[in-house]
Amino acid sequence: MLENHISNTDLVMAIDGELPVSRQREIDEHLHSCWRCRARRAQYERSIEEFITWHTALPVPPPDGPMARLRARMAEASQREERIPVRSNRIAYAGLAAMAGAIVFVLMWGNFPSNVSAATPNPDQTPGMTVPVTANEVCEQRELDEGRPVSSSLADVVFSQYGIRDPQPRRYEVDYLITPALGGAEDVRNLWPQPYSVGMWNSRVKDALEDRLQNLVCTGRLSLAEAQQELSKNWVAAYQKHFHTSQPLAEHAAFVKDKPWE
Amino acid sequence: MEGVPGASRFEMDASAKPSLLFSLISWRVGADTEPSCEATAEAASLFQTHRQPLLRYLRSIGLPAQECDEIVQEVFFSLFLHLKAGKPRQNLAGWIFRVAHNLGLKIRSQISSDRLVVLDKALTEHHPDPQRNGEQRMMDIERYRRLRSVVAALAEQERQCLFLRAEGLRYREIAGVLDLSIGTVSSLLTRALDKLKRADGAINR
Predict the structure, then answer these.
(1) B113 and B133 co-located in one domain
(2) Given CA atoms B108, B114, B120, B122 in this order, what sign does their dihedral have?
(3) ipTM of the assembly?
């Protein structure tokens, strides 16, 4: 009489050929002599067969149109690179910086003045500025612009304008009011020292809004100008509108897109 | 340079093709010496092979068809850039599913709930084989209905493991896509198949 029947996990792994050879051999020997385990294996195999028959019956639209679109994008990207070969490596590093999402902090110490809102910039000092780009350019070139570093000298000017002396590391982000990924300019009128964690409307929450607006613009659901205006007018209101919430979502409050600079 | 209030010149170009923006999309890495045509041919070949499995997987996590198409576009364009930059070519199938999975979840968290496909709806669109006769098709429909309810009731990770395995991924690849251990993948897959098996047993008793 057989004892120690094969566990369900081992049986499934044996069917999938995922066991080490020695264990697979033991199981094969057991199956030769054990009808019960062979019946269990057959049940699993019948379930897999049923599932895969159903799964592959999902109709999928023909590939011709999507393939043509992909080929066009690849051709365009190749041509663009041929036109600007000298910049390519610089672009690579800019892209890497973008993936890290590093908007530069400034190595200074100090406290945020109480007369400045923790969430939005002073509209006189930071009204928001853009560069002349189209939505098409923004969406095609997005990986080049996102997270464009702010120079230390420019950040110094921003802190100075906001009356901040000795800003603490990891506390502020010299952030674009209109993100470069949506055509924002690297201009002191488009930058302000945004606190990282002071209050609930912090830079992490704004990053989530920026991603949402980029998505809307690049899927044609919002014009680029509207996205820019929403950011510059009141990004908190824009967040509340687009995420249908009066307070930041927990996942966004903890969202870290931009690597802190120390 | 312009201030925002008079930004009418920045209206969206009418000819612009919609393209999803994902902050975690791969970056454009310069590879001046790498011939683009090789990367184009390889990406196109992988598109032919993996587009259909990828679309099925993205539907299984509840995304609307339009978003699935856009994600697939972004995945293969990223793959093209990846190949053109001469990056590693081992296990490209796993790479493709991992990127699609991550983008899919990110997009799913961003689109409004009324646009999200209720999973049950995504699972109702399976068509029986038209070659089968009327009675067989009726049986297929009944079997599909039963499978749909079991699959819809699976825990999300069980369902993801099951669909990825159904697309031919090995446990190690599934573990890479879902960021789990191989042991966890094995347990989740076994649990999913146990539930399918129980439902099968119930109908045949």
Answers:
(1) no
(2) negative
(3) 0.75
